[in-house]
Amino acid sequence: MRPSGRSIDQLRPVSIETNVTMHAEGSCIIRCGNTHVLCTASLEPRVPPWLRNTGLGWVTAEYGMLPRATTSRNRREAQTGKQSGRTQEIQRLIGRSLRAGVDRVALGERQITVDCDVLQADGGTRCASITGGWVALRLAVNKLLKAGDLKSDPLPTHVAAVSCGIYGGQTVLDLDYAEDSAAGTDANFVMTGNGGLIEVQASAEGAAFSRDELTKLLDLAGAGVDELVAAQKTAIA
């Protein structure tokens, strides 16, 4: 029995509320159970110096956790003068994942920065950030399309992410913190709306896992991403 009482192939309740800030070109709050993330997309009419005059656009991301997103207060990283290694790794993952679903030629020489701020954490914050970050990105691109600033849609497919793992000897979908902290294997899958794989992160915390178990995790992730993409479609409809 999972701590939450969910079946092994059941996501936590997912909701995506859009247009939650008045200034960002795209914004949403994604809630995956008790994990809540604010995602905003900000448009700039320029690209980093190494991309100037290439005709290519750029999508990047930043990630952070509010001080009381967890059970005890964390110091703001700005106070220490540097980001933790975990923060840097996660925001690079978010940026890579979102860029993989972007036609950078169609985007043109402009940059969109997706900020993902964790309001409340209960496992799966990077996956929620990618899933919600894509919605914020989609809303920002929709404004460009509506204004006639783009000749074609630079987002040909959805991008979403979900965690899976081996908990209590079973392969399970969408780990919350209670499961994540005790799982024998922990994995994150980033996928496109048509089932393509963007990134897979998987590691054994105890005993090694088998190829058959990896296949089961991938099957669970595919079904979970299908549900998340359906939630994205509902949010931007």
UniProtKB/TrEMBL annotation:
Q: Which reaction does it catalyse?
A: tRNA(n+1) + phosphate = tRNA(n) + a ribonucleoside 5'-diphosphate
**Gene Ontology BP, a term:** rRNA 3'-end processing
Q: Which UniProt keywords apply?
A: Nucleotidyltransferase, RNA-binding, rRNA processing, Transferase, tRNA processing, tRNA-binding
In the UniProt record, does the keyword Phosphoprotein occur?
no
Q: Which GO terms describe its molecular function?
A: 3'-5'-RNA exonuclease activity; tRNA binding; tRNA nucleotidyltransferase activity
Q: Which SUPFAM superfamilies match?
A: Ribonuclease PH domain 2-like, Ribosomal protein S5 domain 2-like
The record ties this protein, via CDD domains, to: RNase_PH_bact
User: What's the top EC group for this one?
Assistant: transferase
* Record region (Disordered): 69-88
Which Pfam families does the entry mention?
RNase_PH (PF01138), RNase_PH_C (PF03725)
List ligand-binding residues for phosphate: R86, G124, T125, R126
* Residue ranges of every copy of the Exoribonuclease phosphorolytic domain listed in the record: 10-140, 159-222
Supply the EC number(s): 2.7.7.56
**HAMAP family cross-referenced by the UniProt entry:** RNase_PH
Question: What family is it from?
Answer: Belongs to the RNase PH family.
Question: What PANTHER family does the record tag this protein with?
Answer: EXOSOME COMPLEX COMPONENT (PTHR11953), EXOSOME COMPLEX COMPONENT RRP41 (PTHR11953:SF0)
Its biological function?
Phosphorolytic 3'-5' exoribonuclease that plays an important role in tRNA 3'-end maturation. Removes nucleotide residues following the 3'-CCA terminus of tRNAs; can also add nucleotides to the ends of RNA molecules by using nucleoside diphosphates as substrates, but this may not be physiologically important. Probably plays a role in initiation of 16S rRNA degradation (leading to ribosome degradation) during starvation.
**Subunit structure comment from the entry:** Homohexameric ring arranged as a trimer of dimers.
**NCBIfam families found in the cross-reference section:** RNasePH
Name of the protein: Ribonuclease PH
Task: Provide the taxonomic classification.
Answer: Bacteria, Pseudomonadati, Pseudomonadota, Alphaproteobacteria, Rhodobacterales
